[in-house]
Amino acid sequence: MQNKDENKSIRKFIVINNLLFVFTAVFPAAIFYYFLNDYKSDFILYVFVIPGFIYMTSLILWNIYKILKKRQ
Question: How many folded domains does the chain comprise?
Fold first, then answer.
């Protein structure tokens, strides 16, 4: 029982962390990229948007892999 609660708290922490990452890095960077369409926005795109997108997609795929592995 304790292990399940621990897993739930870890999962909650990971979800909160990812939401904070998205709202503090990815969304503002995407907004800057669309509204300031000049050389500065390319820097924002390369620093925030693409790494954030790669991070989020890899995390989602990793979670799907773990769920599928548990069900077997």
Answer: 1
